[in-house]
Structure formats: C-alpha cells, structure tokens
Fold this sequence. Notes:
The chain has 494 residues and is of the alpha/beta class. The chain has three domains: 7-236, Spore Coat Polysaccharide Biosynthesis Protein SpsA, Chain A (Alpha-Beta Complex); 265-449, 3 Solenoid (UDP N-Acetylglucosamine Acyltransferase, domain 1), CATH 2.160.10; 457-494, no CATH class.
Amino acid sequence: MSSNPTAVIVLAAGAGTRMRSRTAKVLHPVCGRSMLAHVVAAATAVEPRHLVAVVGHGREQVGPHVHELVPSALLAVQEEQLGTGHAVRVGLDALAEALGGAAGLDGAVVVTTGDTPLLEGSTLATLLAVHRDGGHAVTLLTAELGDPTGYGRVLRDADGSVREVVEQKDATAEQRAVREVNAGIYVFDGPYLAEALGRLSSDNAQGEYYLTDVVGIARRDGVRVGAHLTDDVDQTEGANDRVQLADLAARLNRRTLERWMRAGVTVVDPTSTWIDVTVTLEPDSTVLPGVQLLGTTTVAEDAVVGPDSTLTDVEVSRGARVVRTHAELAVVGEQATVGPFSYLRPGTVVGAGGKIGAFVEAKNAQLGDGAKVPHLSYVGDAEIGAGTNIGAGTIFANYDGVAKHRTVVGRHARTGSNNTFVAPVHIGDGAVTGGGTVVREDVPAGALAVSSPPLRIIADWVARRRAGSAGDRAAREAHGADGAPGARGGTGGE
Length: 494
Ligand code: UD1
Ligand code: CA
C-alpha cells in the first residue's frame, strides 16, 4: 500500500447561514486565502491520490474555486444536506466512480471540514501516522476545550479507549461536562468507512446521518478506533460567523508574524501589522506599524516598509524604503524610496536608487535606475530613463479621452516644475524643459523645450486698479516712505 492517503474528502456543502452572506461560507477570505483554500493547502500537503470536495450550498461559487485550487479535484454534489455521514457517502460515491468501482477505495481516507483555516498539513500527517501505526479503522482528531459547547463530545472507556462521539444535542448533562471534543477531522480505512456508512441511521436529535456514529459502530464491530488529542486547538476551530472569522484571522496573522519574526524579520507592532500567508520576507527586513502585506508581496533584506502602507503583489527589493504608500503589482528596486503618500498602480517599476515621492501617483510607469519623480505628479503609461529627474507637479497626460498613450523620457533629462507631457511624446536623453512647459511634440536629445509665454510685468497695476486695497497699501510701503507709485518703473501701462 502506498503511504499516501487514497483521498482527502473536504466537506463544504453546508449553508453557513450565520455568516449572513451572499458568499458561500468557505469562500470567505482569511489572511490571503479562502477558508477552503487553507484546508485544501493542508490536504494537498499530505499528497492524497485524490482530493474530493463535497459541495452543495453555493456550489456554483465553491465548485469553480476548488478547481482553480486543484484542477484535478473531484466535485461531489450533495443536493440535500442530510448530515455529515451522508455528505461523506456522497463524496465516497464520487470517488468510487472515479476509481472505476469500490474496489479502488483501498487505503486511508481523510475527512475534514472546509471551514478550519488554521489547519496545517503536519496535523493531518500526524493523524495519518497515528492511524497507520495503530492499525486503526477509524482515527479522530480531538481537542480539549475550556468551553466545549456545540461540539460532539468524545466519550472514553475507563481504560481510555474511545467508545463513541455524542453530539451536543443528543448528550446528557453528564456527557456535556466532557471537555474533550471531536474536531471533525478523521482518518478512516476506506473500505471500512464505505461499509459502515451504509449502517448509519438518522434516529437522533437532529434527524441527520451523523458521520460521528461511525466511531461507535466501529467499536461495536471490534475494529480498532484511535484518537489523537492535539494541544493546538486553534487548528481545529471553525468559523461559523464573522465574529469567529475575525478572531481566527487575528490568530492566523499572529502565527504568520511570529514565524517571520523567528526567521529574522523585525515586526515593530504585531497588533497593527497584517501579513497574508502568501507573502515572503527576507531576514533583516523591517515592517513598521500599520502595514498590510498582501498577496504575493515579497520584501528583501534591509528593506523597510511602513508605517501605514498597503502592498498587494508588490516586490520590494533589498534596502528599499516604502513609507505611507498604497501599491499594487509594482516593483520597488534596490535602495529605491517610495512615499510618503504615494500610490503605485499595476505595472509600476521603480529602478534601483530611484524615487517616487510625496503625492505621486504612478501607473504602468517604468523608472530607470536613479530616476526620480519626487513631488506631486501623475505618471501614467510612461518610461523614464536612468538618472532623469521629473520636476514637481508634472502630469503625464496619457489619455486623450479615447485611448491611452505612452510617454518616453530619456536618460539624464531634467524636466521643469509643473510640466504637462501630452502623450504620445518622446523627450530625448539629456533634454531639459522649462517650468510650466506643455510638451506636445518630441524633444530631441540635449534640447531645451520651453512653451510657456514670456512673462509680462505691468508696473503699478494695483495702484490704478485696486487703489486703497490692503495690497495697494502694502505695495506703497514696499516702494518707500513717499509711497509714490511708479518708484519701481516697469514695462508701462496696459
Ligand atoms: C460536526 C460533528 C461534531 C464536531 C464538529 C466539529 C457531526 C455529526 N458532528 O458537528 O462532532 O464536534 O463537527 O466542528 O459530524 N456538511 C455537509 N453536508 C451536510 C452537513 C454538513 O457538507 O449534510 C459539512 C458542513 O458544511 C461543515 C461540516 O460538514 O463543513 C460540519 O458540519 P456541521 O453541520 O457544521 O457539523 P457540526 O454540527 O459542527
Ligand atoms: Ca460546524
């Protein structure tokens, strides 16, 4: 027999009514993945030959999501939710069909629920090992809870062996006092499970086919039943409403942060830092308070992110600084600086040693090494060559109302403040533009472009047109004790 389980069956057909959501319960995200995706990640870690998802409520959402995660997964549709025992039977039927008959069911079958986002593959691996080593037909994961309300209780004989699981609603007061609960995560011998499920009855408080009854049936059959009591209770906990969801997310986040801190990442304030499980950080990177690192974001060594930044699918290179920034699908080069108050939209690349400064929005903009956009600008659909500096308040006008166009600025160019680059336009290497220039035509390499009209100065205009105003008085004082207009001369009247 192969050491891999024959299948992991994930139960995800329930309604999840208490979420009060149009989104199926197991699709709600926790730290960068749906609850279901966390469970599927744990399941695939034990390398089952088949992954089976039992879907029902919201299956038009849940089914495609499962296939996105594991294209080869089998979907078993449970039309009516008649209980966990019925759900597993539906899953086994789909599995048997895929295997070309019940004979293929040989080996271990793991059953788990789809709403335990903290479950880890290592826990399933341990459960599988306990199952195999003990030669069990049934092995269940159990946990001891301070408040076991709602869970199935694990009843043991005087010798400590598991006798049965009794559901909260069917339990006597004495049984409800038991604090060891069934986590809803099991390993079964496949053929035994298929046979025992046929003997379930729905004669209980909820009128359902309880998977948990297989435990008592196995004991009465005299086959081996085992349990593994985990001390990591969080892993077995499910989210039934959004309060529990937030609570589990906080715990998973804390675990993620602790893992990174132990790996050499400085997290200054774990209570205000959120890091998705899909993010990677190198040792000696620093995360300041108020930071969210999401998706496939990576942070390299000596980089500092924060405070107060949200990065989604962003690559932060070695030694870079990202301060009070909102960024998505962007790359920040080595030793580059971004922020404060910057907005990097998809396709933005900041070269090594480059800068995107305060109140700058960039979209699909590629900055060469050392290129800088320091202040108050919009950089849309642009390429800026190495060593170029863009003046304050520059707009890369990429949209003519119909289509988007690109602007290319060469290397070591110096553009003045308050410029507008009307794309498509090309500014050559080493070119210079004056303040307030509107660039509508290509500027050759090394040229100076100036488009603002010459400055006119009309002397004593205020004295004539705003006589007696505070400005007039101030001007007279500036002109000297006699306060006479005309003291400064000028280009003449209007
Ligand atoms: C179940 C266990 C209980 C255990 C608890 C752990 C049973 C009878 N009881 O109770 O001993 O302590 O889990 O969380 O198994 N589902 C289906 N189809 C159904 C019914 C349920 O797919 O017809 C799925 C649900 O979507 C859910 C999982 O099975 O993911 C568990 O179902 P739920 O109704 O939450 O069982 P509990 O009452 O919590
Ligand atoms: Ca439950």
